[in-house]
Amino acid sequence: MNAATIRHVLDTMAEMFPDAHCELIHRNPFELTIAVLLSAQCTDETVNKVTVNLFDKYRTPQDYLNVPLEELENDIRRIGLFRTKAANIQKLCRIVIDKYDGEIPHTHEGLVELPGVGRKTANVVMSNAFGVPAIAVDTHVDRVSKRLGIAKADDSVLEVEKKLMRKVPREEWTMTHHRLIFFGRYHCKAQNPKCDLCPILEHCKEGKSRMKAALKKRSVTS
Question: Where does the record locate the signal sequence feature (predicted)?
């Protein structure tokens, strides 16, 4: 995909989702880190339903360490992999207290050292909490990037991230991340994407194939 096409795609998504934003509800970098950790293999909607009570009960890293692991597990039981995530939260909180005086580290290197925090989570925190341009590749970003030919179908998550960073202006990384997520979550869905309404269908090989197949099916049955 050349620079002009990338520009067209980015501008179109900006028109479709001008208010795209992080949908995980949080009040500070610490809560955002916990929310993103919980969101692995889980929808933002489910995470928000859990954190509305979780963040009232636990305000500081120490609060998470003041309860037995089993109690924390129970508090996030609706979240997938809740046992592993509960253990990681308590380990994370211990490191944050001992090494960072109770504050979430402000560097990517510091974040990825925390239990349960991978590159994607670190990118989300850096961009949304600390204003550092970053592109976090979740399932939506990965799917949309590959469908549009920005990345190859067999590219790893890291390869997708690197290609987006090369092709998208740095000052647009964070907003592009949000818009790709909104585009994938509400338009270019994994199942039943809205290809018939897509303003950038011309750039999507998979979408054009879907539309041709649909037309063929209708012509056969008519």
Answer: none
